Amino acid sequence: MAEAGKGNQINLDALSVQQLSQVKKQFDEEVQHLTNSYQNLRVAQQKFKDCVTSVKEGVASSVQDKTLLVPLTSSLYVPGKLASTSHVLVDIGTGFYVEKTTDDALTFYAAKIEELGKNIKDLENVVNGKANNLRMIEEVLRQKMLVQQQQGQAQQGATAAAA
Amino acid sequence: MEQQKQLQSLSNEYQTLQNDMSTLITARQKLESQQQENKGVQKEFNSLADDANIYKLVGPVLLKQDTTEAKSTVDGRLEYIGGEIKRIEESIKEITDKSETKKMEIMQIQGAMQQQQGAA
Protein backbone atom coordinates (compact mmCIF):
# COMPACT_ATOMS: atom_id res chain seq x y z
CA MET A 1 0.00 0.00 0.00
CA ALA A 2 2.79 2.38 0.99
CA GLU A 3 4.67 1.55 -2.18
CA ALA A 4 1.67 2.22 -4.37
CA GLY A 5 1.28 5.52 -2.57
CA LYS A 6 4.88 6.39 -3.34
CA GLY A 7 4.39 5.53 -7.01
CA ASN A 8 1.39 7.82 -7.06
CA GLN A 9 3.35 10.62 -5.51
CA ILE A 10 5.91 10.56 -8.29
CA ASN A 11 3.20 10.43 -10.90
CA LEU A 12 1.26 13.26 -9.36
CA ASP A 13 3.99 15.86 -9.70
CA ALA A 14 4.26 15.19 -13.41
CA LEU A 15 0.53 15.73 -14.03
CA SER A 16 -1.04 18.97 -15.15
CA VAL A 17 -3.72 20.70 -13.10
CA GLN A 18 -6.45 19.44 -15.42
CA GLN A 19 -5.25 15.88 -15.24
CA LEU A 20 -5.01 16.15 -11.49
CA SER A 21 -8.58 17.37 -11.23
CA GLN A 22 -9.63 14.44 -13.36
CA VAL A 23 -7.82 11.99 -11.11
CA LYS A 24 -9.26 13.69 -8.05
CA LYS A 25 -12.76 13.34 -9.44
CA GLN A 26 -12.22 9.68 -10.09
CA PHE A 27 -10.92 9.13 -6.58
CA ASP A 28 -13.81 11.10 -5.13
CA GLU A 29 -16.23 8.79 -6.87
CA GLU A 30 -14.39 5.70 -5.76
CA VAL A 31 -14.26 6.80 -2.16
CA GLN A 32 -17.95 7.70 -2.29
CA HIS A 33 -18.85 4.31 -3.72
CA LEU A 34 -16.74 2.44 -1.18
CA THR A 35 -18.18 4.43 1.70
CA ASN A 36 -21.66 3.56 0.52
CA SER A 37 -20.76 -0.12 0.36
CA TYR A 38 -19.31 0.16 3.83
CA GLN A 39 -22.56 1.59 5.16
CA ASN A 40 -24.57 -1.09 3.40
CA LEU A 41 -22.45 -3.78 5.02
CA ARG A 42 -22.98 -2.15 8.39
CA VAL A 43 -26.76 -2.13 7.86
CA ALA A 44 -26.71 -5.77 6.79
CA GLN A 45 -24.69 -6.75 9.84
CA GLN A 46 -27.10 -4.90 12.10
CA LYS A 47 -30.02 -6.77 10.52
CA PHE A 48 -28.42 -10.08 11.36
CA LYS A 49 -27.79 -8.88 14.89
CA ASP A 50 -31.48 -8.00 15.17
CA CYS A 51 -32.30 -11.51 13.97
CA VAL A 52 -30.19 -12.96 16.77
CA THR A 53 -32.04 -10.86 19.33
CA SER A 54 -35.38 -11.89 17.84
CA VAL A 55 -34.55 -15.56 17.97
CA LYS A 56 -33.23 -15.28 21.50
CA GLU A 57 -36.07 -13.26 22.94
CA GLY A 58 -38.99 -13.84 20.59
CA VAL A 59 -38.81 -17.60 20.16
CA ALA A 60 -37.86 -18.65 23.66
CA SER A 61 -39.87 -21.04 25.75
CA SER A 62 -40.65 -18.20 28.15
CA VAL A 63 -43.04 -16.70 25.58
CA GLN A 64 -44.53 -20.00 24.48
CA ASP A 65 -48.01 -19.45 25.87
CA LYS A 66 -48.24 -15.76 25.23
CA THR A 67 -50.07 -14.40 22.23
CA LEU A 68 -48.20 -12.12 19.89
CA LEU A 69 -49.20 -9.77 17.11
CA VAL A 70 -48.26 -10.83 13.63
CA PRO A 71 -47.87 -8.02 11.12
CA LEU A 72 -49.78 -8.73 7.90
CA THR A 73 -48.99 -5.27 6.59
CA SER A 74 -47.18 -2.44 8.32
CA SER A 75 -50.50 -1.26 9.77
CA LEU A 76 -52.50 -4.46 10.14
CA TYR A 77 -51.80 -7.00 12.85
CA VAL A 78 -53.50 -10.23 13.85
CA PRO A 79 -53.01 -12.08 17.13
CA GLY A 80 -51.14 -15.35 16.91
CA LYS A 81 -49.33 -17.96 18.88
CA LEU A 82 -45.97 -19.54 18.33
CA ALA A 83 -46.37 -22.98 16.84
CA SER A 84 -42.91 -23.99 17.88
CA THR A 85 -40.30 -22.52 20.18
CA SER A 86 -37.63 -24.92 19.04
CA HIS A 87 -37.58 -24.40 15.27
CA VAL A 88 -37.45 -21.37 12.99
CA LEU A 89 -37.31 -20.84 9.22
CA VAL A 90 -34.19 -19.06 8.11
CA ASP A 91 -33.84 -17.19 4.82
CA ILE A 92 -30.52 -18.29 3.43
CA GLY A 93 -30.74 -16.28 0.22
CA THR A 94 -32.13 -16.55 -3.34
CA GLY A 95 -35.58 -17.42 -2.03
CA PHE A 96 -34.60 -20.54 -0.11
CA TYR A 97 -35.66 -21.06 3.49
CA VAL A 98 -34.35 -23.76 5.76
CA GLU A 99 -35.94 -25.09 8.90
CA LYS A 100 -33.41 -24.88 11.69
CA THR A 101 -33.41 -25.32 15.43
CA THR A 102 -33.03 -22.04 17.26
CA ASP A 103 -29.48 -22.97 18.24
CA ASP A 104 -28.55 -23.71 14.64
CA ALA A 105 -30.15 -20.46 13.57
CA LEU A 106 -28.07 -18.56 16.10
CA THR A 107 -24.91 -20.26 14.83
CA PHE A 108 -25.90 -19.39 11.28
CA TYR A 109 -26.42 -15.73 12.12
CA ALA A 110 -23.23 -15.58 14.16
CA ALA A 111 -21.29 -16.91 11.16
CA LYS A 112 -22.92 -14.31 8.92
CA ILE A 113 -22.13 -11.52 11.35
CA GLU A 114 -18.53 -12.63 11.58
CA GLU A 115 -18.19 -12.89 7.80
CA LEU A 116 -19.61 -9.40 7.37
CA GLY A 117 -17.36 -8.12 10.13
CA LYS A 118 -14.36 -9.41 8.23
CA ASN A 119 -15.57 -7.78 5.03
CA ILE A 120 -16.19 -4.53 6.86
CA LYS A 121 -12.65 -4.55 8.21
CA ASP A 122 -11.16 -5.26 4.79
CA LEU A 123 -13.23 -2.54 3.22
CA GLU A 124 -12.26 -0.15 5.97
CA ASN A 125 -8.60 -0.61 5.06
CA VAL A 126 -9.31 -0.02 1.39
CA VAL A 127 -11.33 3.10 2.13
CA ASN A 128 -8.60 4.49 4.38
CA GLY A 129 -5.97 3.84 1.73
CA LYS A 130 -8.04 5.55 -0.92
CA ALA A 131 -8.81 8.47 1.36
CA ASN A 132 -5.11 8.91 2.01
CA ASN A 133 -4.36 8.91 -1.70
CA LEU A 134 -7.14 11.40 -2.21
CA ARG A 135 -5.66 13.71 0.41
CA MET A 136 -2.30 13.46 -1.32
CA ILE A 137 -3.82 14.37 -4.65
CA GLU A 138 -5.62 17.30 -3.11
CA GLU A 139 -2.39 18.53 -1.54
CA VAL A 140 -0.46 18.40 -4.82
CA LEU A 141 -3.35 19.98 -6.68
CA ARG A 142 -3.49 22.82 -4.14
CA GLN A 143 0.23 23.47 -4.50
CA LYS A 144 0.02 23.47 -8.28
CA MET A 145 -2.86 25.93 -8.18
CA LEU A 146 -0.90 28.17 -5.85
CA VAL A 147 2.13 28.12 -8.15
CA GLN A 148 -0.07 28.88 -11.12
CA GLN A 149 -1.68 31.78 -9.30
CA GLN A 150 1.68 33.23 -8.30
CA GLN A 151 2.91 32.97 -11.85
CA GLY A 152 -0.19 34.74 -13.07
CA GLN A 153 0.29 37.55 -10.56
CA ALA A 154 3.98 37.87 -11.44
CA GLN A 155 3.05 38.17 -15.10
CA GLN A 156 0.40 40.77 -14.34
CA GLY A 157 2.87 42.68 -12.24
CA ALA A 158 5.40 42.56 -15.08
CA THR A 159 2.92 43.91 -17.63
CA ALA A 160 1.82 46.61 -15.18
CA ALA A 161 5.45 47.60 -14.64
CA ALA A 162 6.10 47.68 -18.39
CA ALA A 163 3.09 49.95 -18.90
CA MET B 1 -13.93 19.37 -43.72
CA GLU B 2 -13.83 15.80 -44.92
CA GLN B 3 -11.60 14.92 -42.02
CA GLN B 4 -13.80 16.69 -39.54
CA LYS B 5 -16.80 14.63 -40.66
CA GLN B 6 -14.77 11.49 -40.35
CA LEU B 7 -13.63 12.49 -36.90
CA GLN B 8 -17.20 13.19 -35.89
CA SER B 9 -18.45 9.80 -36.98
CA LEU B 10 -15.48 8.08 -35.38
CA SER B 11 -16.05 9.71 -32.05
CA ASN B 12 -19.73 8.83 -32.26
CA GLU B 13 -18.79 5.21 -32.78
CA TYR B 14 -16.34 5.44 -29.92
CA GLN B 15 -19.05 6.84 -27.68
CA THR B 16 -21.40 3.99 -28.60
CA LEU B 17 -18.71 1.49 -27.75
CA GLN B 18 -18.18 3.15 -24.38
CA ASN B 19 -21.91 2.98 -23.66
CA ASP B 20 -22.03 -0.70 -24.58
CA MET B 21 -19.09 -1.22 -22.31
CA SER B 22 -20.74 0.31 -19.27
CA THR B 23 -23.89 -1.76 -19.88
CA LEU B 24 -21.77 -4.88 -19.97
CA ILE B 25 -19.92 -3.92 -16.82
CA THR B 26 -23.18 -3.37 -14.96
CA ALA B 27 -24.38 -6.79 -16.10
CA ARG B 28 -21.10 -8.30 -14.98
CA GLN B 29 -21.45 -6.77 -11.53
CA LYS B 30 -25.00 -8.06 -11.19
CA LEU B 31 -23.91 -11.57 -12.13
CA GLU B 32 -21.09 -11.38 -9.64
CA SER B 33 -23.43 -10.59 -6.77
CA GLN B 34 -25.84 -13.33 -7.84
CA GLN B 35 -22.95 -15.74 -7.94
CA GLN B 36 -21.92 -14.74 -4.44
CA GLU B 37 -25.43 -15.21 -3.11
CA ASN B 38 -25.84 -18.59 -4.74
CA LYS B 39 -22.47 -19.71 -3.47
CA GLY B 40 -23.55 -18.82 0.04
CA VAL B 41 -26.70 -20.87 -0.41
CA GLN B 42 -24.73 -23.79 -1.80
CA LYS B 43 -22.36 -23.70 1.13
CA GLU B 44 -25.32 -23.67 3.51
CA PHE B 45 -26.97 -26.61 1.73
CA ASN B 46 -23.81 -28.64 1.91
CA SER B 47 -23.62 -28.24 5.65
CA LEU B 48 -27.24 -29.31 6.14
CA ALA B 49 -28.38 -32.71 7.34
CA ASP B 50 -29.96 -34.89 4.67
CA ASP B 51 -33.36 -34.77 6.31
CA ALA B 52 -33.39 -31.00 6.64
CA ASN B 53 -36.54 -29.22 5.56
CA ILE B 54 -35.97 -26.79 2.72
CA TYR B 55 -38.62 -24.38 1.50
CA LYS B 56 -38.60 -22.22 -1.57
CA LEU B 57 -40.33 -18.89 -1.77
CA VAL B 58 -42.70 -18.93 -4.73
CA GLY B 59 -44.66 -15.72 -4.92
CA PRO B 60 -46.17 -15.22 -1.49
CA VAL B 61 -45.97 -18.84 -0.32
CA LEU B 62 -43.25 -21.16 0.86
CA LEU B 63 -43.17 -24.48 -0.93
CA LYS B 64 -41.45 -27.43 0.58
CA GLN B 65 -38.69 -28.74 -1.61
CA ASP B 66 -36.71 -31.91 -1.86
CA THR B 67 -33.16 -31.46 -0.57
CA THR B 68 -31.52 -32.96 -3.63
CA GLU B 69 -33.79 -30.98 -5.91
CA ALA B 70 -32.93 -27.73 -4.16
CA LYS B 71 -29.25 -28.57 -4.32
CA SER B 72 -29.35 -29.29 -8.02
CA THR B 73 -31.30 -26.06 -8.63
CA VAL B 74 -28.54 -24.05 -7.00
CA ASP B 75 -25.81 -26.02 -8.79
CA GLY B 76 -27.58 -25.40 -12.09
CA ARG B 77 -27.85 -21.72 -11.34
CA LEU B 78 -24.18 -21.44 -10.49
CA GLU B 79 -23.25 -23.21 -13.70
CA TYR B 80 -25.44 -20.88 -15.73
CA ILE B 81 -24.06 -17.79 -13.99
CA GLY B 82 -20.51 -19.00 -14.55
CA GLY B 83 -21.24 -19.38 -18.26
CA GLU B 84 -22.82 -15.95 -18.46
CA ILE B 85 -19.85 -14.35 -16.73
CA LYS B 86 -17.50 -15.99 -19.23
CA ARG B 87 -19.64 -14.81 -22.13
CA ILE B 88 -19.75 -11.25 -20.84
CA GLU B 89 -16.03 -11.19 -20.13
CA GLU B 90 -15.44 -12.12 -23.76
CA SER B 91 -17.76 -9.35 -24.95
CA ILE B 92 -15.98 -6.89 -22.69
CA LYS B 93 -12.62 -7.91 -24.12
CA GLU B 94 -13.95 -7.59 -27.65
CA ILE B 95 -15.28 -4.11 -26.98
CA THR B 96 -12.08 -3.03 -25.27
CA ASP B 97 -10.12 -4.08 -28.35
CA LYS B 98 -12.55 -2.33 -30.65
CA SER B 99 -12.54 0.91 -28.71
CA GLU B 100 -8.75 0.80 -28.53
CA THR B 101 -8.60 0.62 -32.33
CA LYS B 102 -11.09 3.45 -32.64
CA LYS B 103 -9.06 5.54 -30.25
CA MET B 104 -5.98 5.03 -32.39
CA GLU B 105 -7.89 6.02 -35.53
CA ILE B 106 -9.18 9.13 -33.85
CA MET B 107 -5.73 10.09 -32.67
CA GLN B 108 -4.34 9.59 -36.18
CA ILE B 109 -6.93 11.87 -37.72
CA GLN B 110 -6.42 14.47 -35.02
CA GLY B 111 -2.68 14.35 -35.63
CA ALA B 112 -3.13 14.75 -39.39
CA MET B 113 -5.48 17.68 -38.84
CA GLN B 114 -3.04 19.41 -36.54
CA GLN B 115 -0.24 18.98 -39.06
CA GLN B 116 -2.39 20.48 -41.78
CA GLN B 117 -3.24 23.40 -39.58
CA GLY B 118 0.44 23.92 -38.84
CA ALA B 119 1.23 23.85 -42.59
CA ALA B 120 -1.55 26.35 -43.33
TrEMBL record, chain A:
Pfam families: Prefoldin (PF02996). Keywords: Chaperone, Coiled coil. It comes from the Eukaryota. This is Prefoldin subunit 5. GO terms for cellular component: cytoplasm; prefoldin complex. Gene3D superfamilies: 1.10.287.370. GO terms for biological process: protein folding; RNA polymerase I assembly; RNA polymerase II core complex assembly; RNA polymerase III assembly. The keyword Coiled coil applies. Belongs to the prefoldin subunit alpha family. Residues 17-44, 106-133 form a coiled coil. PANTHER family: PREFOLDIN SUBUNIT 5 (PTHR12674:SF2). NCBIfam families: prefoldin subunit alpha. GO terms for molecular function: unfolded protein binding. It comes from Cladosporium halotolerans.
TrEMBL record, chain B:
One of its GO terms (cellular component) is cytoplasm. Gene3D superfamilies: 1.10.287.370. One of its GO terms (molecular function) is protein-folding chaperone binding. Residues 7-51 form a coiled coil. Keywords: Chaperone, Coiled coil. CDD domains: Prefoldin_6. GO terms for biological process: chaperone-mediated protein complex assembly; protein folding. Belongs to the prefoldin subunit beta family. This is Prefoldin subunit 6.
